[in-house]
Amino acid sequence: MKKVSQFLLLALGVVVLFSTNSCKKQLNKTPKYGLNSEVVYSDPDNYINVLAKLYSGLSMTGLQGPAGKGDIAGIDEGFSAYVRVLFNLQELPTDEVVCGWNDPGIPELNKMTWSPETSFIKGMYYRIYYQITLCNEFIRESSDAKMTERGFDAGTQERIRMYRHEARFLRALSYYHAMDLFGNVPFVTEEDKVGAFQPERISRSDLFAYLETELKDIEGQLMAPGNIEYGHASSAAAKFLLAKMYLNAEVYTGTNRYADCANYCQEIINSNAFQLDDDYTDLFRADNNTSPEIIFPVVYDGLYAQTWGGTTFMVCASIGGSMVAADYGVNGKWGGLRTTAPFVDKFPDSMLDYRWQFYRTGQSKEITNLGSFTQGYALPKYQNKTSTGSSASNNGTSAFVDIDFPMFRLADVFLMYAEASFRNGDAGTALNYVNTLRERAYGGSTHNLGSISLTDILDERARELHWECTRRTDLIRFGLFTGGDYIWPFKGGTAAGGSVSNHLNLYPLPTADLNLNPNLVQNPGY
Amino acid sequence: MKKALRFLSLTTLLFIQTLVFGQGGKIQGTLSDSTGKPLYGAKVILEGQNRGGQTDESGKYVIDLLEAGEFTLIFRATGYQEIKRTITVGPGQTVTADASLKSLEIELDEVVVIGYGTTRTSDLTGAATVINEKNFNQGSVSTPEQLIMGKTAGVRINTNDGAPGSGSTIRLRGGTSINASNDPLIVVDGVPLDNGGIAGAANPLSLINPNDIASFVILKDASATAIYGSRGANGVILITTKKGNGLNPEKLSVTLDSKHSLSTIAKYADVLSGEEFRALLTANGTQDQINLMGDANTDWQRQVFRQAYTTDNNVSLTGGIKFLPYRLSFGNRHENGLLKRDKFNRTSVSLNLTPTFLKNTLQFEVNQRYVQTNQTFANRGALGAAFFDPTQSVYSDTTLFNGYYEWIDTNTFLPENLAPKNPLGLLNQRVDTSNVWRYIGNAKVTYKLPFFPQIKAVINGGLDLSNGSGAYSESKNSAGGFYTQGSYGQYSQRKGNKLLEAYLNFNNGDKESKHLIDLTAGYSWQDWFTDRPTDTLPTLNEAQDSIIQAPGSIYPFYTDNALLSFYGRGIYTYDNRFVLNVSLRRDGSSRFSPETRWGMFPSVSGAWLLSNESFMKPITLINMLKLRAGYGVTGQQDGIGDYSYISNYYIGSTTAQYAFGGQFYSVMRPDGFDANLKWETTSSYNFGLDIGLMKDRFTASIDVYRKETRDLLATVPVPAGTNFTNQILTNVGNMRNEGIEISTSFGILAKKDMRLDVMANATYNRNTVLKLSQIVDSNSVGIQVGGIAGGLSNTIQVHQIGNPTFSYFVYEQQYDANGNAIESGSFIDPSNPGLGTYTDTDAFVDRNGDGVINIDDRYIFEKAAPDWFLGLSLNFQYKKWSLGMSMRSELGGYIYNNLHSNNGTLQGVNGTQGFLNNISSLYYEEEFQYTNDRQLLSDHYLERADFLRMDYVSLAYRFGKLKFTKEKIGANVAFVVSNVFVLTKYSGQDPEISGGIDNNFYPRPRVFSLNLTFDF
C-alpha cells in the first residue's frame, strides 16, 4: 500500500506540473484570418464592407460568388437569393409567370397549393430574417455611443452614421416584405442580442406603424438622391417604400392611406432627381445602372457579383425552346419561365407597345403542361446586352449578368400616384401619369387613354411592371389574387384555372419556426 | 529503385551470412503446445547472450551459433509457461531441442495493448477485440481497414466504392452522432491520427501501408474507450505496427512480398442497349427525340471501364545492430482503377527501432513512417456513361472537341451547355493528379525508476503531418471547356498534429500475490492544424492566361485546435478471479468556450473469472469463463468547427462583392455561432461473457450493450431573427444504440498436419432517435437528410424521434389490379384516353385522408442501416496447403434505387433541351412516362439491401525453406480472388452502398491476385 501511495503522490505532482495556467492558455485559439466582431468594428474602414454585405444580402447568396458558404441553409443556395425568391413568391402564383421546373415548391407556387413546408416560402422567410439580423448587428455596432467609445473622429462618425441609416432602411425593406408576404411575424431589433431566445410576434398593423415611424425618421436623415453614389439607398428610396406601404395600407391595416401615398409620390416626382428612361427596354439591359429612372437598384455584375439568383435567374430561366442563349448574352438556356395567355391579352395593340416583348417561335400561347417550356409565350424582358446591343462583361460565356434589378423605379411612382389620386377622386392626375408612361411605350401620344378606370391602372401596372415582383401585391389590393373574380391558367391547380381560398393572400409561416417559437401564430387557413 | 533495393538487401544478407556461417554449431527444434499444435512466433533465447530465434508457422526454429559450448535455452511464448533447458553443442554439431510448453493457468494471459499501456487479456473488463496478422483478410488490400472487414462483431466496415485507394465507412456499434463524426478514433503506435480528409487523397488511411501492420485492437465499449475521453464515443482502433523482434540482433531476416492483381468489373449497370433505345423512341418518342437519335450502337460503359492491373511489392528487413533491434520496410503499390486513367501509386518507407539501455530499464520505441501517393483521378463524370445516348458513336468525323461526339446546338454549332458530355471524352480530356505525403512518427521512452522498479515513466511524442497537392486541367477543345477555353486549377493542403504525452505506471507485478495493482496517471496534449494556402488561387483557363473563376476566398484557409487532457486508470485484480477497472479522463478542448470546454469522462468496469473459482475446476470442458460488466461516459467532438463558439467575420470572395458608384467592395459577414456549444456525451453499458471450451478449441464472446448519446449535435433551425444563420450546429438531441454481439471461433480440426479453424461473428444493432430539438415537438417531421438525384433539393431520409437515423421518409405507392405501380397523370386505360387519368391520390396512399397528397402523407419506411451484420471466416491447412476465405452478410437494411427512380422513366430520355439520355432497363417494369417529385419519393424505389458477399478466397502453398545456392529461402505462393460473389435480390449493381442511396456508383472490382512471399 505504501508503494501505491508513493505512486499516487508522484502522479499528483505530474498533474499539478502540467495543469498550470500556461498550459490551459493553449486552449484559447482564434482564427488566423477570420476577424471577430471586436476587431472588425474597431477599424472604421471595415464598416463599408459590412454595409456591402447588408446590400449584397439582396443580391448574393453567400460569401462566394456564384455559390459557396451560403447564408441560408436548407434550400439550394441559388434558390435562396433574395430577389429570386421574391420573384417566385410575387410572380409565380399570378397570371404573369409560369415556371416549367419540377423542383419542390415551384409547381405548388404556380398552382397556389403551397404549404408551410414549401421550400421557397421557407427560403423567403429565412432570407428576410437573415437580412434583418445582419442589419440589427450593424445598427447595434454603429451606434453613436460605440463609435465614441472606439474614438472615431467626427467625420468618420458622420460617414458611419449615414451607413447606419441605410442599414435601417434595408431592415425596413425586409420588414416590409415580411409584412406584405407573411403578415404577422417575429419582431427583432438591435435591442435583441444574438443568441438563443424566442422573438415576440408583431401584428401586421403594428408592424405597419413601426415601419411608418422608422421610415419617416430615416427619410429625413438619408442622403438626398443625387448626393449619393449609385447603389446606396437615398431618402427617395425611403419615400418610395412609404408610398408603397400607404398604397396598400388598407390590406395591411384595414385603413386606407391614399392621400399619404400621393404625398410621398409627389415628393419624389417634384425632387426632379429621376426621369423616365427614353427607352423602356434599356431599363432591363446590362448597362441599366446608367438609367435615370432607377430609384433603388439591386446591383449585379457578371464578373464581381455573380449569383445563380437575381437577374441571372431572370435572364437564363426565361430562355428555352428555339431561343438562342447567345442572343441574350448568356451561355445557357434554363428553360423555365414563360407567361400565360391572359397576360399576353393585356397587350391588345401587340407589338406597337414597346413593352410587348414576347418570343413566339415554336411557342404556343396556351398552356396545358406546366413542364413544357414551349407552352406559353416566352418573355425575354431581361437581356444581358448593353442598350447599344454589345456584349456585357461576361462576353456571353457565362450565366452571370450585369443587369441591376430595378427594385424601385420612377414609373412605379407614376402608377402609384395615379392610383392613389384616382382613389382619392382625382381621375385627371391619374390619366395624366398613365398616359405619360403610354407615350413612352408607344413612342407618342397615339395610344393615350381618353378616360381611365381602376382596371386600366391595374392593367397598365401589368404592362409596365410585369416580372418586377409587384404583381401579387397589386392583385391582392384589387381583390383579384384569390377568389374567382379573375382566373388564369393553373390558378388553383387546373390548366383552366379556378377560384382559390382567401387565406392564400398571406403566405404561411414555416412550421419549423412555429415549432421553435411559441410566440408565433400560424396565419389562418394553414 | 526496387531492383536496387533487392540487390542491396541481398548483398547485405550475404555479407552477414558469411560472418555467421560455419563457425559454431547449430540448435534447431520445434515448439508446440501440450496438444501438439505448433507454436508460431515463440521465442528461443540463449540466456545471457541477448540473442536467439523465433519459430515459424510450423513451430520450427534454428539458431546458428558463433561457437560451440554449453547453452541455456529459454523457451518463451506468450500465454505459456517459460521453460529453461541446458544443452551442449560441439563444434559444427547440430543439436535438436524440441519442447512442449504448458499453457499458463489462465490461458489467455496474452498482453493486449490498451490506451496508455498494456494489460493481460485475462484482466480485460471491457469489450475489446484483438485481430492479429494471421487473421487478416488476404488478397489485394489497399488500405488498412480492409484487413479486418467482417472479422469481428460490432465493427461494420464498408468500402465506399471501388475506386483505387478509396475510403471506407467504419462504424463501431452503430453511429452515435447525426451531424458530427461517427468515425472511430484511430491510434497508430500511440499517436491518435487526424481522421479528417487530406486533399488529394480519397482516404486518409490509404496513407498507411497495410503491410506494416502487426495487429489491431478494437475497443468497443465505453469502459475501454473512456480513457480517450472526448474522442472515445465512436470506439477506438489501436493499430500496432511491426517491430524488430530484438532476439537475434546479428541475424538479418528479409521478407519479400509481391502481389499481382487483375481487377475486373463485376457487374455493369443495366441500361437500354442501342437497339432497345431506338425501338423505344421509335414507338413512344416525340419527333424531337427521334430526330436527335444517331445510328450507332455504343456500349458506353465498356468504353470507360477496363480490366486493370495492380502490383504491390514489399520488402522488410528485420534484425539488429547490437542493442538496436530494427525493422525497415519498403513498399510500393501501383493500382489501376476500373475507370480508365484512374491510377494510385503508393510508396512507403517505415523504420522501427526498439533499443533498450541500462539493463532494460530504459526502453525506446521509435516509429517512423513516410508514405507518398501519386494519384491520377479519372473524371468521375464518366461514371454516368451508362446513361449517355447509346445510339451515338464515340467519335464524330470532325476534329471538333478533339474528335469526340458531343451534343451541339444545331443553330449555333456550339456545345449544349446542359447536355451530358461524351464519357470517353470526359476521361481523356481531363488531367487530374495529386501528390500526397504523410509522415507519422513517434518516439516513446519508457524508464523504470531505479529505486522503484515497479514504477515506470513513459513519455511519448508524436507527429502526424501530411501534405496534399494537386492540379487538374481540362482541354480547351473539350465540349465542357469550350466556353471557358478549358480550365486549370490547383490545390494544396497541409495538415498536422503534434502529440506530447507523459504518464506514470505502477504495477506491483507480484504474481504470487493475490492482489495485482496496476495504476496509470498521465497527461496528454495534442494540437492540430490545417492550412490551405491555395484557397486564394483562381481557376484559370487551360492556357493559364486568364481567370475564369475568381478565388473563393481572399485569405488562405487556416484552422487549428488543441486538446489538453489528464487521465488516470486503476486495475485491481484479486486472486485472478475478480478484476476491477476504473478510469477517469478530463479533457479540455479549444473548440469550446472557456465555460464549456472541460469535461469529465469516467468509467468503471469489472470482470469475474468464474473458471478460476474452485467450484469450476471439476468442469474440465470449460477452461475459461468470464463475466464482464462495464459502464462509461465518452465524448465526441469531431465534426465541430474550430471556432464556432465565437462570433467571427469572414471576407467574401472577389466574385461576391457589392458595388457603390461602380466601385466594388468586398463583403464582411458574421457567421452564425453558438456560444454554448459542447461535445456530445455517450454513456454506455456493456455486459459480456467470454467462454473457452476444450482448451480454447472453441471460444465465444457475447456482449450486450446500450449506448445513449446526449447533447447530440445536430444542425437544426434557430428561431428566425436570433442568429446569423437559419440553421446551426448545436447540442439538441438524444439517441440510443443497443445491440448484441457474438463472436465465436472453433478449431474443428487440430491435427498435426491438418487444421480447420472457423470464426464467425454476428452483430445486431438498432439505433433510435430520442430527442431532436430543445423544445419537444411531436409534430415535427424531424431533420430531413439524404439528398437524391432528381428534382432539386429532394431528400429521401429523415432523422425522426422514435425511429432509427436515416429512416426513409416516403410516399406509399399504390398499385393497380395487375400489380403495376400507378403513375399520377397517366391514362387509366392507355387504349382509351377518354376514361381519364390517374391523380396523385390514385398513385399514392392519402395517409391522413385530407384529399391531397403532400408532405403529411409521407411515412417512415425502414432505414438504411442493417439490423444484422455477420462475418464468417475459415482457414483450412493441410500440410503445406492452406485455404482461407471470408464472407460477410448484412441483413435488414434498405436501399433507395436512385438510378431507377431518376433514370427509369421515359421523361429521363429528355430530348427537349437538345440531347438524349439513356434510361435504366428497370423502365420496362412500370413504364412510367414522367419523373416527378412525389414519384421520386415513392416507397416503390426502396429495396432490401440484404446481401452475402464473399470478400475473398485464397489458396496458398508454402514451399518451406528452399535451398538455392548457399542461402535458404522460404517461399509462399497464394492465389486469391477478392469480391468473389455477392448474393442479393437487389436489382441494382451493388447492394452495399454506404448511406443507402444508390446513384452513379464506382463499381467494386472483382480481383484476381497472385501473391508471392519469400523470406531469407
Distance between the termini of chain A: 73 Å
Tertiary shape of chain B: globular
Order of strands in the sheet with most strands of chain A: 2-6
Q: If you compute it from the alpha carbons, what radius of gyration of chain B comes out, rounded to the nearest whole angstrom?
A: 31 Å
Report on the biggest sheet of chain B: 22 strands, antiparallel, barrel
Brief rundown of the structure:
Chain A has 526 residues and is mainly alpha-helical.
Notes on the protein architecture:
- The complex is a heterodimer of chains A (526) and B (1016).
- Chain A is 43% helix and 4% strand.
- By secondary structure, chain A is mainly α.
- In chain A, the strands form three sheets. Chain A has a two-stranded antiparallel sheet with strand order 2-6.
- Chain A is globular, with a radius of gyration of 26 Å.
- With 1016 residues, chain B is mainly β.
- Chain B is built from ten helices and 53 strands.
- The longest helix of chain B is centred in the N-terminal third of the chain and has 19 residues, at 2-20.
- Chain B is globular and about 100 Å long.
- The model of chain B is unreliable at 1-22 (pLDDT under 50).
- At the A-B interface, helix 1, strand 1, helix 3, helix 4 and helix 7 of A face strand 26, strand 27, strand 30, strand 34 and strand 35 of B.
- Strand 1 (35-36) of chain A pairs antiparallel with strand 34 of chain B.
Question: What's the SSE blueprint?
Answer:
The complex is a heterodimer of chains A (526) and B (1016).
Chain A: H1 2-18, H2 21-25, E1 35-36, H3 37-42, H4 47-59, H5 82-91, E2 98-99, H6 106-111, H7 119-141, H8 144-149, H9 154-181, E3 185-187, E4 200-202, H10 204-219, H11 235-247, H12 249-253, H13 258-270, E5 294-298, H14 310-317, E6 337-338, H15 341-344, E7 405-409, H16 410-423, H17 427-442, H18 454-465, H19 471-477, H20 511-516
Antiparallel strand pairs in A: 2-6, 3-4, 5-7
Helix pairs in contact in A: 4-7, 4-9, 5-7, 7-9, 9-10, 10-11, 11-13, 11-16, 13-16, 16-17, 16-18
Chain B: H1 2-20, E1 26-33, E2 43-46, E3 51-54, E4 60-64, E5 69-76, E6 83-89, E7 94-96, E8 99-101, E9 111-114, E10 117-120, E11 128-132, E12 155-159, E13 168-172, E14 185-188, E15 191-192, E16 213-219, H2 222-225, E17 236-241, E18 253-265, H3 274-284, H4 287-292, H5 300-304, E19 308-321, E20 324-336, E21 343-353, E22 356-357, E23 362-376, H6 423-428, E24 430-448, E25 455-474, E26 487-507, E27 515-532, E28 539-540, E29 547-549, E30 557-574, E31 578-589, E32 598-609, E33 622-636, E34 648-651, E35 658-660, E36 663-665, E37 668-670, E38 680-693, E39 698-717, E40 727-750, E41 754-771, E42 783-787, E43 795-799, E44 807-810, H7 840-843, E45 859-863, E46 868-878, E47 881-891, E48 894-897, H8 898-903, H9 923-926, H10 933-936, E49 942-944, E50 947-964, E51 967-984, E52 997-998, E53 1005-1015
Parallel strand pairs in B: 1-7, 1-8, 14-17, 48-52
Antiparallel strand pairs in B: 1-4, 2-3, 2-5, 5-6, 9-10, 11-16, 12-13, 14-15, 16-17, 18-19, 18-53, 19-20, 20-21, 21-23, 22-23, 23-24, 24-25, 25-26, 26-27, 27-30, 28-29, 30-31, 31-32, 32-33, 33-38, 34-37, 35-36, 38-39, 39-40, 40-41, 41-46, 42-43, 43-44, 44-45, 46-47, 47-50, 48-49, 50-51, 51-53
